[in-house]
Design a protein that fits this description.
This protein is mostly beta strands and 116 residues long. The protein contains no helices and 11 strands. The mean pLDDT is 97.
Length: 116
């Protein structure tokens, strides 16, 4: 199993970024997927989740209305569209696979920095 995030970077408040997570080594379309982040000096926090078909999505309250999770099962890729970014969104963003007892595989993360 391999999960590789990309798309992070530095952006000003109010800006946008699109994160991608390329999945391999497993049947991507059979698993729920998550985005999780870790802000500087803080613990891991679940950001968003999507079901196997992409039709059901879930968000933590702090990103509702600003972030959109999606997936392309034909391309084995998970996405996170991040709009209206705020300084408090600054974090290392990971994609993770949902196992039978929590998240069982993680990528190495991509850094998002929101600063003026």
């Amino acid at each position: 199993v391999q999960l590789v995030e990309s798309g992070g970077g530095s952006v000003q408040p109010g800006g946008s970024l699109r994160l991608s997570c390329a999945a391999s080594g497993f049947t991507f379309s059979s698993y729920w997927m998550y985005w999780v982040h870790q802000a500087p000096g803080k613990g891991l926090e679940w950001v968003s989740a999507v079901n196997t078909g992409g039709g059901s999505t879930y968000y933590t309250d702090s990103v509702k209305g600003r972030f959109t999770i999606s997936r392309d099962n034909a391309k084995n890729t998970l996405y996170l569209q991040m709009n209206s970014l705020k300084p408090e969104d600054t974090a290392l963003y990971y994609c993770a696979r949902a196992g039978t007892d929590g998240m069982d595989y993680w990528g190495k993360g991509t850094l998002v920095t929101v600063s003026s």
